[in-house]
């Protein structure tokens, strides 16, 4: 079972994480990459790299034969699947072993057994692990499922046996809706997993998601490495994870951990794995959900509180080494929180964001597992999660505070991220008091969430940062006089003008670094003495009191963007200079009311109109797939379809024209 070179069958941040584990043990790494990832950091940092196909996952990261051929060509002796893609594919694990390679993970049989929700729950029951009441029988007829649904009572869930991440899942609160829920869950399960089998399970409202990390070797030893809470979720996708699970009765915690070890022992589990539970605080009971037979996205929080490197031990176990520690050796220190950083816009229904990262300035002194850097391109082919921010502190309150501080110092340009939304979750009183649960986001933000914007005072600071970037302190008088010197009243220094792109009136800037004054459109005035922009920090004195803010000034195509640290977090303000404003007016702005364009790169999934169709404003014209999500693109105006520039299956660039309309007023 010895090997010296590991092929990593994955991409992005998890590929880089596994590379670090390989370097720690003196192992060489092999990166496999798609055409879209040719310039990605994980490719450049690998000891060897092989292109295995096109951007579509089916052509590359899901192409088993291409991956095995890359392993043969590079002389790799082992394959690490990471998470996602083929990590829980029993057929892939078996193919790796059949090729004479070491699969860094559990036995194929264990993957297959735990991959079936029905078989996994049967194994859990046999190991004495509590499961939710429900029906998991082989009879999949409509009649039997409806009969069992009536016996179970509402509310209950219809769940895909081979499912995960909420796909193939339907909540039934009225028995009359059961036939449609079963049919739609089956259809989605067949489409997503190639298996239409479903089961029924009692629904526990206000439940929490608690999981236990296990680690097993090839010599029969299984340990638990504590628990995690992953209850902050959107559409069954985790947002924030923490370890250990807080506000959990110690007796329940002990039973959860012991049950996870029993289940792993019962199936002869090796490598890292996670047993997931649903915890019902109202009943004080927990129930088995599933077992993930791979490394979890959230494994860093367990590493933070235990000091145990999970990737290192995956590699050691795959080499046949016994665990060098006992359960009593596993100690827990403090509290850790992980924030998933995704390229999406939560304020616009979590719309995926794509493009080139023009600014990447993460906070110092915290762990950041990331697959990108400045200059990286975030495309539409893969999941939107691009990084994970991990903090550790002596207690949960300190960890929350440190996570918020880290987000406040994180500046990113070119691609929108969900950092402000994650900050709002961390700062929410429900999270601090542990009132949140797996379906609690609507309770936390009943009116929806709105991204914070810079207040007038912060807007003035943003304009000052831009002014000092363009007219640095110590510039010559000719540079510092301002754009309108010749037309200023006699005896007054000239002013520079900066327009917020959402407003018509400018912010006026007078003076120099020794005394810089910003006048807002509403007349509010702020004067900063000794104002200076040094690197990424704006500083000076206001009424003799020193102040300092992080400020990054980045050029965008038609304006400047200032990333400013504020009391509400990091904000991004778009400003135009006088020259930008003139150019904007000369070109008439952007956007064509009668043209539907792609908001991002993607693949056309559906075209729902034909030439000559009459549509209303808001009607869905095209469905675009990007980052594994379907986006319905509405008609910008009412009118008649005159041109169609795309067809199902086409790959389109961001801002590419899709549908041309003749507006209703013209017809």
UniProtKB/TrEMBL annotation:
Which residue numbers delimit the Biotin carboxylation domain? 2-446
What Gene3D superfamilies does the annotation carry?
Answer: 2.40.50.100, ATP-grasp fold, B domain
> What residue stretches are annotated with the Lipoyl-binding domain?
587-662
Residues in coiled coil = none
Q: Where is the ATP-grasp domain?
A: 121-319
Keywords, comma-separated and alphabetical: ATP-binding, Biotin, Ligase, Nucleotide-binding
List the Pfam families hit by this protein, alphabetically.
Biotin_carb_C, Biotin_carb_N, Biotin_lipoyl, CPSase_L_D2
Q: Which domain of life is it from?
A: Bacteria
Q: Which cofactors is this protein said to need? A: biotin
Q: Note the PANTHER family from the entry.
A: CARBOXYLASE:PYRUVATE/ACETYL-COA/PROPIONYL-COA CARBOXYLASE, METHYLCROTONOYL-COA CARBOXYLASE SUBUNIT ALPHA, MITOCHONDRIAL-RELATED
Could you tell me what this protein is called? Biotin carboxylase N-terminal domain-containing protein
Q: Which organism is it from?
A: Pseudodonghicola flavimaris
């Amino acid at each position: 079972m010895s090997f010296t070179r590991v092929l990593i069958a994955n991409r992005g941040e998890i590929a880089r994480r596994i590379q670090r584990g390989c370097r720690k043990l003196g192992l060489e790494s092999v990166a496999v990459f798609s055409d879209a990832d040719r310039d990605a950091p994980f490719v450049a940092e690998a000891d060897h790299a092989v292109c295995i196909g096109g951007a579509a996952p089916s052509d590359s990261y899901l192409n088993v034969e291409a991956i095995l051929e890359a392993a043969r060509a590079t002389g790799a002796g082992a394959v690490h699947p990471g998470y996602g893609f083929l990590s829980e594919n029993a057929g892939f694990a078996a193919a790796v072993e059949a090729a004479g390679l070491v699969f860094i993970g559990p036995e194929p049989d264990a993957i297959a057994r735990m991959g079936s929700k029905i078989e996994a729950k049967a194994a859990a029951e046999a190991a004495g692990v509590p499961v939710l009441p429900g029906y998991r029988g082989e009879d999949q007829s409509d009649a039997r499922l409806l009969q069992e649904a009536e016996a179970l009572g509402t509310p209950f869930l219809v769940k895909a046996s081979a499912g995960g991440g909420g796909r193939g899942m339907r909540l039934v609160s009225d028995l009359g809706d059961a036939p449609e829920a079963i049919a739609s869950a089956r259809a989605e399960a067949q489409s997503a997993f190639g298996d239409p089998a479903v089961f029924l399970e009692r629904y526990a409202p206000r439940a929490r998601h608690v999981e236990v990390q296990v680690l097993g070797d090839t010599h029969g030893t299984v340990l638990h490495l504590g628990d995690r809470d992953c209850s902050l979720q959107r559409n069954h996708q985790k947002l924030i994870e923490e370890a250990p699970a807080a506000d959990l009765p110690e007796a329940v915690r002990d039973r959860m951990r012991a049950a996870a070890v029993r289940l792993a022992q019962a199936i002869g589990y090796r490598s890292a794995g996670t047993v997931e539970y649903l915890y019902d605080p109202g009943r004080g009971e927990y129930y088995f959900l599933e077992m993930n037979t791979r490394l979890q996205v959230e494994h860093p929080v367990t590493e933070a509180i235990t000091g145990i490197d999970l990737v290192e031990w995956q590699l050691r176990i795959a080499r046949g080494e016994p665990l060098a520690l006992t359960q009593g050796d596993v100690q827990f220190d403090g509290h850790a929180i992980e924030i998933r950083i995704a390229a999406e816009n939560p304020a616009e229904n979590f719309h995926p964001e794509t493009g080139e990262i023009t600014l990447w300035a993460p906070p110092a002194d915290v762990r950041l597992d990331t697959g990108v850097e400045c200059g990286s391109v975030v495309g539409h082919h893969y999941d939107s999660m691009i990084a994970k921010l991990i903090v550790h502190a002596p207690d949960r309150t300190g960890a929350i505070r440190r996570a918020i501080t880290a987000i406040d110092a994180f500046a990113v340009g070119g691609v929108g991220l969900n950092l402000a939304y994650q900050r709002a979750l961390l700062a929410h009183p429900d999270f601090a008091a542990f009132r949140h649960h797996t379906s609690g986001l609507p309770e936390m933000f009943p009116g929806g969430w709105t991204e914070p914007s810079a207040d007038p005072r912060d807007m003035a600071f943003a304009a000052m940062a831009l002014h000092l970037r363009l007219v640095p302190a110590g510039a010559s008088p000719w540079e510092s006089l301002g754009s309108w010197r010749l037309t200023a009243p006699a005896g007054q220094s000239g002013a520079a003008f900066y327009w917020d792109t959402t407003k018509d009136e400018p912010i006026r800037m007078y003076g120099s670094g020794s005394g810089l004054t910003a006048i807002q459109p509403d007349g509010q005035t702020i004067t900063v003495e000794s104002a200076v922009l040094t690197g990424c920090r704006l500083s000076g004195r206001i009424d003799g009191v020193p102040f300092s803010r992080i400020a990054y000034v980045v050029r965008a195509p038609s304006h400047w963007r200032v990333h400013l640290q504020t009391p509400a977090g990091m904000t991004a303000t778009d400003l135009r200079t006088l020259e930008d404003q003139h150019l904007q007016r000369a070109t008439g702005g952007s956007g064509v009311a009668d043209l539907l364009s792609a908001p991002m790169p993607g693949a056309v999934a559906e075209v729902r109109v034909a030439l000559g169709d009459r549509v209303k404003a808001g009607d869905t014209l095209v469905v675009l797939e990007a980052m594994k999500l379907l986006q319905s693109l509405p008609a910008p105006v009412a009118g008649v379809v005159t041109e169609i520039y795309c067809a199902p299956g086409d790959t389109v660039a961001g801002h590419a024209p899709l549908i041309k309309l003749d507006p209703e007023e013209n017809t």
